Amino acid sequence: MNEAIKLYFEKNKILFFILNLVMIIALLKLFQMLAYPKADFKEALTLNNIKFMLVGMDGELGGLALTFVIAIISIIGSFIFGSILAIARFSKNRFINTPAILYIELFRALPLIMVIFWVYFAVPIVGGALFHTKISASALTSALISFTLFESAYIAEIVRAGLKSIPQGQFEAAKTLGMSGYQTFFLIILPQAYRRMIPAIVSQFVSLFKDTSLAYVIGVIEFFRAATIINNRIYQSFEIFSFVAIVYFICSFSLSKIAAMMERKVQKQLHT
Amino acid sequence: MTYDFNWAVLIEYKELLTDGFIMTLKLSVIGIFLAFIMGTLISLMRVSKNFFISLIGVYYTEFFRNIPLIVQMFFIYFTFNLTDIFPFLEKFASFTGVESSNEFFSALLALVTYTSTYIAEAIRGGIHSIPKGQEEAAKSLGMSYIQTHFLIIFPQAVKIAWGPITSQFINLIKNSSLAMTIGVAELTFQTQEIDSLTFRGFEAATAVTLIYLFLTLATSSFMGVIERFALIKTGGMK
Question: Which one of 1.10.3720.10, 3.40.190.150, 1.10.443.10, 3.50.50.100 gives the CATH number of domain B8-235?
């Protein structure tokens, strides 16, 4: 019987996905009934509150929409910066690859929250010392900068792994066709590497999407901060945070399933 | 406009920094220990032959992996009073010398649930990479299911997954900085403390950055030493 269930779900993946979501929400409801019977979702999750959490106040971007905007802008920025870092690290010149290695290792050893504080508190000081002017960044800008700086170290490692996975024969074949070093790299190697990296980058995007909740500490009103604002007002933490958890779960679970699907596709393409 | 550095602040407030360091260490060490046990259990559930047991494992990993750590921390901290629900935690807190026990255990619980999912995934990957013949060989030697798993499959799987497990331990150390948001006085919290006391956030942040660098490097080299001397030598497998 177990085998039959397994086979059925392997054939109908989308059904299994929806069933999983429903099951998890049902389990949460069960948990709520056991652990916190006095929960009152109607009072906490009014239409206004949900609207504030999902799209922010009128005329101003906030909430879940802002979370997505932050995540998308930073993943694009860190993709560009991370690629540059990875190419620098791949280079054979020691003066080019040493700074890249130092950058990547430093940012991978730091907690994201420290990076956010560094950008938020140190950029005005460093900017003042270097350019003799008062530079100040808003909370949103410094959140974007710090996510970009932090993620690009991880993206650089993904790009480097992608570059390494290209067989040596490709370089040699390009050389025999009379291509220059730059042509080989940008026309032959990089496009192939990028295609292999797409699943890894999508899963990095999922982790970035979860990490955007840390912009909370410097006061960006994204989804999590909006939820805490409401929680501070009405103090029904169980209801609000379980709503937040479910929304985050649905978003990142679907995204990670998409990443897994893409990975299977890329694997199939590579093996045929 | 130039910024004049005053590194003497660090010496003046060195107690805050050492307290924060010890608190981070406590969170990390207890967290790593519990997360490893939890991750092991979940990975064993996931590779179980019983569909429903493995489904519970899948739900656990998918659920706790896809919710940001900070949300889990806030959920636990603001909703439940852990020391009221589990009175023995109070004793444990006084044993380890933790003052704000409720905050500490909320942060610890969230860290353990979050990291254990990643550790479970790493160990599961290791278990899947063990060839089927190992299990059959153990069975033909007359070993029971539990013996096969704990004496043959699991040690090899941990050896293979040691790299990802190390990076998850490092992630746990880094993520322990999130405990500052619910008021556990660890390293990052003390940076803010020094900043608000003396307005010298830059120096404090530099010091704390160096401490985090030291912690992560120490962990990765320590795990490397364990791998070299304990895992490979006894197993004879590389």
Answer: 1.10.3720.10
Using the beta-carbon criterion (under 8 Å), do A110 and B72 form an inter-chain contact? no
B66/A111 touch (CB, cutoff 8 Å), yes or no: no
Residue A222 phi, psi dihedral angles, 5° rounding: -95, -165
pLDDT digits (tens, 9 = 90+) for A45-94: 888 888 888 887 777 788 899 999 999 999 999 999 999 999 898 888 88
- Cβ distance B75 to A242 less than 8 Å, yes or no, reads yes
ipTM: 0.86
Query: What's phi and psi for B142, nearest 5 deg?
Result: 90, 20
Q: What does the block give as tokens for A69? A: 């905007």
Contact: A2, B208; criterion CB under 8 Å: no
The domain locations on chain A are: 1-35, 38-271
Q: Which residue has the tokens 């410097």?
A: A218
pLDDT reading at B108 higher than 70: yes
* pTM of the entire predicted model: 0.88
Among the partner-chain residues B49, B201, B212, the one whose CB lies closest to the CB of A111 is B212
C-alpha–C-alpha distance, residues A146 and A124, integer Å: 14
Q: Where are the domains of chain B?
A: 8-235
Q: Do A111 and B74 touch (CB under 8 A)?
A: no
CA distance A15 to A30: 22
> Helices A139-164 and A190-211 sit at what angle, rounded to 10 degrees?
140
Shortest CA gap A249–chain B (Å): 5
Find chain B residues with C-beta within 8 A of A36's C-beta: 79
Superfamily of domain A38-271: MetI-like (1.10.3720.10)
CB B190 within 8 A of CB B203: no
Burial class (CB in 10 A: 0-12, 13-18, 19+), B7: exposed
> The tokens of A96 are what?
């080019």
A178 Ramachandran zone, left/alpha/beta (phi>0; psi -120 to 50): left
Which residues of chain B does A217 touch, with a Cβ-Cβ cutoff of 8 Å?
181
Place of tokens 């949300």: B71
